[in-house]
């Protein structure tokens, strides 16, 4: 009995997490929006995710580009960082990023990016293919769909806005 109740609770929690992330169908066109719709994202954000500490900084959009950085550390050691660019592409935009190890060696090839295409923009929320960012007050939650060794999960990151 306890196992079935626990299984139901876990299934319910997983379904809530998975509902936070939207995906584009194979031939579906990306959503429409403008980078300037994301001014709510600007600032310095600190929090937790991936079992450690995280920080993100987002600068105001200029010329259809919103630049950001991310760093993750665990037990006082830098694990990886990211350079991010939300890029206007006609009537849509994408989040493009590159990952770097602590020694700045890149994960992606020189001319390759990890790209998240826009699904839709809502009030203080942006849905990319496999990634959602939502602001409520001075907090932001991110949900990232990940697949490792054939197992799909949703990683949740939680941030609070900070002053520099």
The biggest beta sheet, please? Answer: 10 strands, antiparallel, barrel
Please report the number of helical segments.
Answer: 1
Structural shape: globular
Helical/strand content category: mainly beta
The amount of beta strand, in percent, is over 45%
SSE topology string = HEEEEEEEEEE
Tell me the strand order in the biggest sheet. 1-2-3-4-5-6-7-8-9-10
Our Rg estimate from Cα atoms comes to: 17 Å
User: What's the β-strand tally?
Assistant: 10
What is the average per-residue confidence, as pLDDT, rounded to a whole number?
88
Q: Which fold name fills CATH's third level, the topology?
A: Lipocalin
**Which stretches of 5+ consecutive residues score pLDDT under 50?**
1-18
Number of structural units classed as domains? 1
Pfam families: DUF6265
Domain DUF6265: 39-141
Keywords: Signal
Signal peptide: 1-19
List keywords for this structure.
single chain; 164 residues; mainly beta; Lipocalin; ten-stranded antiparallel beta barrel; 54% strand; globular; DUF6265; DUF6265 domain-containing protein; signal
């Amino acid at each position: 009995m306890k196992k079935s109740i626990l299984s139901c609770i876990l299934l319910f929690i997983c379904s809530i997490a998975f509902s936070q992330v939207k995906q584009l169908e194979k031939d579906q066109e990306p959503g429409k929006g403008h980078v300037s719709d994301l001014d709510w994202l600007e600032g310095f954000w600190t929090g937790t995710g991936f079992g450690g500490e995280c920080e993100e900084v987002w600068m105001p959009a200029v010329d259809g580009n919103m630049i950001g950085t991310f760093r993750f550390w665990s037990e006082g050691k830098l694990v990886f960082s990211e350079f991010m660019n939300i890029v206007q592409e006609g009537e849509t935009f994408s989040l493009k990023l590159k990952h770097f190890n602590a020694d700045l060696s890149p994960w992606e090839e020189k001319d390759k990016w990890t790209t998240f295409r826009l699904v839709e923009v809502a009030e203080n929320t942006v849905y990319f293919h496999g990634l959602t960012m939502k602001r409520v007050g001075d907090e932001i939650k991110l949900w990232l769909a990940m697949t490792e060794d054939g197992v799909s999960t949703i990683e949740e990151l939680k941030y609070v806005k900070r002053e520099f």
